[in-house]
Amino acid sequence: MITEEQTSQAVAGILSSHKKEKKNLIPLLQEVQAKLGYLPKKTMQEIADFLEMPEVEVWGVATFYNQFRFVPLGKYHTMVCMGTACHLAGGRLILEALERELDIKVGETDEDGNFSLERVACIGCCMLAPVIVIKDKIHPKMTPFKVEEALVSYKQETQRENS
Amino acid sequence: MFTVTFEEINNRAKSEWAALQKGSYILVGTATCGRAAGALDVVDAFNKELTRQGLEVPIIQVGCTGLCYADPLVVISKAGSLRVVYANVTPETVHRLVEGYVAGDDPCLELALGTLEGGDGEAVYIPELPRFERELRLILRRCGCSDPENINHYIANGGYSGLEKALKMSPEEIVGELKKSGLRGRGGAGFPTHRKWELCRKARITPKYVICNADEGDPGAFMDRVVLESDPHQVIEGMIIAGRAIGAEQGYIYVRAEYPLAIERVQIALKRAEELGFLGDNILGSGFGFHIEIAAGAGAFVSGEETALIAAVEGRMSTPSPRPPYPTELGLWDKPTLLNNVKTFAYVPLIIERGAGWFASIGTEGSKGTAVFTLAGKVASAGLAEVPMGTTLRELIYDIGGGIAKDKQFKAVQIGGPSGGCLPETLLDIPIDYDSLREAGSMMGSGGMIVMDEDNCMVDAARFFLDFSTKESCGKCTMCRLGTLQMLHILEDITAGQGKIGDIDLLLALAEDVKIGSLCGLGKTAPNPVLTTLRYFRDEYEAHILDKRCPAKVCPNLTAYYILPDKCDRSCEHCVLTCPTEAIKGGAGEIKHIDQEKCVNCGTCMDVCPPEYSAVIKVSPITELPVEDVAAKERGIAQQAKQVA
Fold first, then answer.
1. Domain end position, chosen among B64, B99, B134
2. Do B73 and B32 belong together in one domain?
3. Whole domain around residue B534: which residue ranges?
4. How far apart, in whole angstroms, are the C-alpha atoms of residue B138 and residue B223?
């Protein structure tokens, strides 16, 4: 777990490597998220102060784009591709299977912080449809049954770590 | 000052390339598509196997050849022998390839897709595959054949000679060449490229900017990603030439965040170009300076619209602004800005190098050159293709894509993503060019092509695209924000079996309103998927509304899975064991039966039922089920509706 102090230090480090220009707002948000995994509330104020703009404007930009998140992700962040090719190949069934198996809805993280679920528009692997991405690993040509199989190994891994 | 001439750089690159061709080397396609299929594991396996056998053969990670269905793709090249292409390579087959062909003389043809040289008749000669009779590769010609991270590979194969030539031309001459070439914007709308360039060149305000639009947001389109991952220098070279032509010194490449590998490879390419003096304050000693920065998108489909993209680069919410003023006049930070698509820039060095006349000789009267398409969906050989404008849809889908997978029946082809339309079989012989596609109700779009077969429901497809458009609407215009949402609700009702006959007219009326009431392309074109499916597949809408029937058996509320009692083997328990909701009842030796109340229509039982029984079928309308099952299904639907609410 990262302490608040470490978070502030990390953010200060990122801020100091940028010029105080408005065009740096999106890169700043991206770098903070890359470092912390999400955008904590306090950070938004810090970025606003740094760029000398109202905090509401920072929130406006951050909530406009799909990339930014305001809650920490699970250890195994799972993305379901909902592009056209994946949809036609049964993407909805895959998404439903994941919601069922993980017992969370799209946009949520489970209670233990292990899994989070997100739908994405298209990751450009259309010939392998339908695809899901679990912790940066692409799983091609999924079926509801293969979803269960894929999750078993990750679930075992979290259990091993916890015991 | 230390300056190296282009000739020296060129000679060095050519000798490096020639030295490579003299020995053996291995190419592995590691673009995102290859990686998804496991290409990085293949690279690892090659490294280990070569070390184990004490062989020193370079492994070069290249981009995508467009034969995505064959990924991971490996080429083994040996001086004096055939260059052999291997498809669907796995870490397990690597040992065999190294021992057989890298170390020995056995080309392992049983694992090969074919050879790149005229063979002895034993293996397929790849350039003679039917698809290559149709294809003409200009901007894809180096993709998958040269190292995107090695600038010398690019230079040795003709790279940066267009820039060298352009530096000796006046800006007027460069724009003049583009005008003669007839190049039109490859972002989708097809605006004549030279007109944008000319407006920017004539603009009096300085500084000016060049922006490359690599915000490839259409789901199902990935050619810009492939170009950036496989051959990024041609885009950079095109941008430098643009800077020279309009008098700009700064360029930006706006790449969407979902493409991390593209960003990485462009970053490397920019660095190499700077090191060799193709970017910087004094390019090749010409006195002309140009710099390029990457702006990484943060995920918004609307950013593909030029004014919205400019807002994103400035660090604002990506919402479009009314035009005029056009970006060529008041663009980035209110300065004249030239915005073109990735592929548009990629054509520029070729046009300058080989001449406008050559380019204009390819294609049709109104659409010159080639078009790059991604073929995905229910096509047998999915991937990327580059064809002369005017090629027909049928040639593209059947000759290049290998027809429909699994011998299914073709139903429609969707072109241009959420802004495009679904075209039926009767229109397969129209030539692909800007004007013919627009007449048919679709558009060229960025070039994503998704093939649909008999198992795809057209109403559901329209619903899918509208769902995408409502999610991606930036919210600025009321009709785009709320009109599309109303249309989506109507389509959701129809696919759920709640449609009314007046819905079709209501959809048509709303579609017109959304088109008129929206500022940018996103809203103006959002109704296209609905309009084209209504125009060509109206019978499917009517079946959903009047008969509560989904002809393709897709829509979950109108379709049910059913186990035919006389076909069920009784002793087999595949379906029972795999059903995720434990909806299938029946002990050992009993006929299995689906509890329709619990069934979630996932289709697993149908997939696992052994083909010798094929006992699971889909029925639509659900009234075709036995009476007690219909009641259970209706209870299940009501329950799910409650959960969603």
1. B134
2. yes
3. 459-546
4. 13
Partner residues linked to B85 by β-bridges:
B75, B114
Q: Which of B415, B433, B456 is the last residue of a domain?
A: B456
Q: Which residue type is seen at B295?
A: A
- Strand, helix or coil at B102? helix
Residue B275 has, within 13 A of its CA and on its CB side, a CA count of 10
B36, B417, B448 ranked by CB distance to A138: nearest: B36
pTM of the model: 0.93
Contact B98, B63 (CB under 8 A): no
> Is the same domain home to B481 and B441?
no
Q: Reduce the DSSP state of residue B174 to 3 states and report it.
A: helix
Of A147, A163, A159, whose CA–CA distance to A75 is shortest?
A159
Phi-psi domain of B187 (left: phi exceeds 0; alpha: psi -120 through 50; beta: other): alpha
Between CA A62 and CA B112 the distance in angstroms is 49
Helix (H, G, I), strand (E, B) or coil at A81: strand
The number of folded domains in chain B is 5
Q: How many CB pairs under 8 A join A and B?
A: 142
pLDDT, tens only, B40-66: 999 999 999 999 999 999 999 999 999
Residue type, B377: G
Structure tokens given for B432: 């692909």
B377 shares contact with chain A (CB less than 8 Å): yes
Reported ipTM: 0.91
CATH of residue B586's domain is 3.30.70.20
Residue among A61, A116, A160, A39 nearest B317 (CA)? A61
Asked if residue B153 is part of any domain, the answer here is: no
Residues B228 and B348 in one domain: yes
> How far is the alpha carbon of B456 from chain A, nearest alpha carbon, in Å?
7
Chain B's closest residue to A26, CA to CA, is B315
The CA distance from B175 to B200, in Å, is: 10
Please write the tens of the pLDDT for every residue from B392-422: 999 999 999 999 999 999 999 999 888 889 9
- 3-state DSSP assignment of residue B248: coil
- Quick one: which H or E segment has residue B594? strand B593-594
**Runs of H (alpha helix) within B157-247:** 161-167, 171-181, 193-202, 223-230, 233-246
Q: Does B146 map to a domain?
A: no
DSSP at B54: T
* B1 has a pLDDT exceeding 50: no
Asked if residue B522 has pLDDT above 50, the reply is: yes
Q: What is the pLDDT of residues B592-644, one digit of tens each?
A: 999 999 999 999 999 999 999 999 999 999 999 999 999 999 999 999 888 77
For B343-386, what is each residue's pLDDT tens digit?
999 999 999 999 999 999 999 999 999 999 999 999 999 999 99
Q: Do B313 and A64 touch (CB under 8 A)?
A: no
H helices within B429-583, ranges in order? 434-439, 458-472, 478, 484-495, 503-516, 521-525, 528-536, 538-546, 574-578
CA distance B220 to B215: 13
Q: What is the CATH number of the domain that holds B500?
A: 1.20.1440.230
Contacts of residue B464, defined as CB under 8 A and 6 or more positions apart, other chains included, come to A84, A87
Query: Residue B120: its pLDDT value, please?
Result: 64
Distance from CA of B591 to the nearest CA of A (A): 22
Cα-Cα-Cα-Cα torsion B67, B73, B76, B81, nearest 10 degrees, comes to -30
**Helix/strand/coil for B562:** strand
Residue of B nearest to A82 (CA): B219
Same domain, B184 and B246: yes
Can you read off the two tokens belonging to residue B12?
């060095």
Quick check: is B83 in a domain?
yes
Question: Among A64, A67, A125, whose Cβ lies nearest the Cβ of B32?
Answer: A125
CA distance to B17, B405, B406, B453, per residue, from B409 (Å): 47, 9, 9, 6
Mean pLDDT on A31-51:
94
In a domain, B145, yes or no: no
DSSP 8-state class, residue B363: B
Tokens for A40, please give them: 């904590």
